[in-house]
């Protein structure tokens, strides 16, 4: 069954590394956006009952509770089995947690990124490890125990010692799910522009090298596995049964529909996206707007490899896919980036680190 993604692109501050379509804007602009998003939801013709609902951003945990309730009410709820809300540490209160639980939110994704105060301050984040600890306790008291913690490997000034400190906090807090993202510089972010120009602001002169970032990632894989938090996708780890049902749809090629700024949709054959600038999104809001006009047909065989190989379970190629991609498959097997498990193909540990090389081989086959 399909999933729903709702974008709420507002934050209390803009992180130095952020390249997402999100920003800190006036209350009036937020209200205008909230109204346009409500209108987009109201106009949608539901051809199926969604199974998962995911609020991303931005910082949707800052959303007024009545606004959040209205969006949830606009989505058919009969088949919903997972409702996730992204939260920035520092935005969880007992009142909000109680209200979220009553609205049917039972999974929260905390954008922690690091438990080391110096690393956090270089990115512009204001929380502390203790705030994360206290807010996870608040969520648990109100029945939201299914929590994801995001970490970033490769932040400015990060060392193996500081990385292990963050991992030790994971052991202490015991979340059900952890996401580990290997940091990539984006030239559209403040940190990215500074690094490109050879500057030092935002810790640009303290960025770890690629080899060290890979070491951070492999250390996390091993440490989390020792806690029973097992990798099921390149960047995602979970205790058994706590994998993100919504995100699995992306990697298994299942349909989903996105609402709001820069939201993406997929119906199994076509992909399309909403505008990625707020002014353009608001200008197109209204009953005559149809973002499907820019839909692109997918190549289902490429898609199967490109998204499916991100999963630890790998994929089972069809006979046609094996024939079409035979050269690329054999080359990646020969270089040790892919391995066979019966009829299945999956990335090796080295292949996970060099996954873009495998995907490029497939796309150019």
Offer a few descriptive terms:
about 375 residues, TIM Barrel, 2 domains, nine-stranded mixed sheet, about 40% helix, about 20% strand, globular
CATH superfamily of the largest domain: Aldolase class I
Strand percent estimate: 15-25%
- With strands numbered from the N-terminus, the spatial order across the biggest sheet is 7-8-6-5-4-3-2-1-9
Low-pLDDT runs: none
| CATH fold field value of the largest domain | TIM Barrel
Mean pLDDT: 91
Question: Share of helix among residues?
Answer: 25-40%
- Helices and strands, in order, run as EHEHEHEHHEHEHHEEHEEEHEHHHEEHH
- Helix segment tally: 15
What is the number of beta strands?
A: 14
CATH architecture of the largest domain: Alpha-Beta Barrel
Shape: globular
Ends apart, CA distance between termini: 31 Å
């Amino acid at each position: 069954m399909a999933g729903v993604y709702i974008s709420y692109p507002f934050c209390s501050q803009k992180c130095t590394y952020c390249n997402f379509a999100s920003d800190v804007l006036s209350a009036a602009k937020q209200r205008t956006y909230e109204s346009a998003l409500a209108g987009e939801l109201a106009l949608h013709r539901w051809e199926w009952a969604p199974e998962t609902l995911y609020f991303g951003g931005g910082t949707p945990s800052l959303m007024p509770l009545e606004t959040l309730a209205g969006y949830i009410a606009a989505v058919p709820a009969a088949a919903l089995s997972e409702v996730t809300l992204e939260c920035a540490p520092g935005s969880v209160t007992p009142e909000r947690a109680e209200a979220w639980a009553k609205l049917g939110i039972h999974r929260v994704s905390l954008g922690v990124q690091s438990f080391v105060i110096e690393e956090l301050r270089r990115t512009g984040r204001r929380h502390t490890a203790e705030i994360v600890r206290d807010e996870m306790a608040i969520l648990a008291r109100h029945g939201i125990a299914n929590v994801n913690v995001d970490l970033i490997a490769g932040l400015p000034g990060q060392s193996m010692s500081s990385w292990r400190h963050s991992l030790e906090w994971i052991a202490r807090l015991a979340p059900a799910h952890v996401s580990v993202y290997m940091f990539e510089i984006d030239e559209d972010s403040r940190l990215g522009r500074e690094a490109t120009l050879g500057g030092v602001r935002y810790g640009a002169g303290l960025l770890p090298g690629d080899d060290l970032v890979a070491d951070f990632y492999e250390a996390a894989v091993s440490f989390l596995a020792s806690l029973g938090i097992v990798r099921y996708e390149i960047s995602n780890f979970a205790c058994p049964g706590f994998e993100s049902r919504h995100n699995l749809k992306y990697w298994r090629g299942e349909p989903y529909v996105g609402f709001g700024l820069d939201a993406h949709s997929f119906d199994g054959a076509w992909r399309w996206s909403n505008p990625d600038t707020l002014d353009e999104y608001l200008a197109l809001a209204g009953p005559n707007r149809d973002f499907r006009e820019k839909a692109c047909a997918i190549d289902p065989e490429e898609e199967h490899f490109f998204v499916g190989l991100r999963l630890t379970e790998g994929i089972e190629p069809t006979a046609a896919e094996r024939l079409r991609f035979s050269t690329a498959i054999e080359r990646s097997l020969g270089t040790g980036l892919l391995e066979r498990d019966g009829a299945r193909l999956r990335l090796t540990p080295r292949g996970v680190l060099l996954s873009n090389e495998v995907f490029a081989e497939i796309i150019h086959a």
